[in-house]
Amino acid sequence: MNRKPMLLAAGVLTAIAFAALPALASGGEYEAHCIGGSTCVGEITGGATSLESDNGDIITCSTVGGSTSFATTSTTGTVNLHFTGCREHVTFFTFQCNSPGSAAGTINVTGVTYHLVNLEHGGTTPGVKLTNVSVTFDCPGYTKKTVTGSVVGHLENPASFCNTATTTHAVNFQQGASTGIQKYMQVTTTGTQTDLIANNDSGGTYTTAAQLGTGIIHWNNPVMITC
Q1: Of 139, 140, 117, 120, nearest in space to 130 by CA
Q2: How far is 42 from 22, CA to CA, in rounded Å?
């Protein structure tokens, strides 16, 4: 069976603020602190995102928004994502796609857990791993899919935020060397690879896909990542 990641481009985050730099947590995770509060809340904004499958399926969304939060001194938090202008790009008609109860072209992904992780073995490449993703979306006239699993993104320009408090972070999700394969699939480039799995509820096979896009997190309090 193949597998597949869902859109979620802008998405998710990271966090930390502490004068004394704590050590890297077990399992390749970074600890996070919220400066000036017990909980940091962030607004997520971003432009176009796409989900590109190894079987040729392409779903794009024109914008992404959402919210995220974490309790200080933590390696994990939660994120909710809101995608608009979503369409499939397989048929001539480019049918709109939506999650249940959402307007046409709108896909909501809620209650996702994120982990602030190191993507590089023996080095420093801060990233975000979204786990327990679960969303169903329908593109009436084309297909209906359910997507579950995990997806990993890279925190851009770490030199600007490692061990330094900031009010914004950018998370980038990239495709790897092959279509439908995520660039980052492991924490510290070791251990089990993670991916998202898409079940074609209208019939057909499972496919592997890659999420492409960048999301910006705007924090209510400064956040610092120790890395």
Answers
A1: 117
A2: 23
Task: Give residue for tokens 């997507």.
Answer: 147
How far is the C-alpha of 95 from the C-alpha of 113, rounded, in Å? Answer: 30
Cα separation, 197 vs 151, in Å, equals: 10
User: What is the pTM for the complete model shown?
Assistant: 0.84
Closest CA to 87 of 140, 146, 12: 140
Tokens of 27: 């399992």
Q: Measured in Å, how far apart are the chain's first and last C-alpha atoms?
A: 36
3-state SS assignment for residue 159: helix
Cα–Cα distances (Å) from 128 to 10, 75, 136, in that order, read 11, 10, 22
Residue with tokens 């309790």: 71
- For residue range 176-223, list pLDDT tens digits in order: 888 888 999 999 998 788 888 777 776 666 777 788 899 999 999 999
In one-letter notation, the amino acid at residue 35 is I
149: β partners: 133, 196
Residue 101, judged by CB atoms within 10 A of its CB (0-12, 13-18, 19+), counts as: exposed
Residue ranges of the domains in the chain?
Answer: 26-225
- Measuring CA to CA, which residue among 123, 120, 127, 136 is closest to residue 161? 127
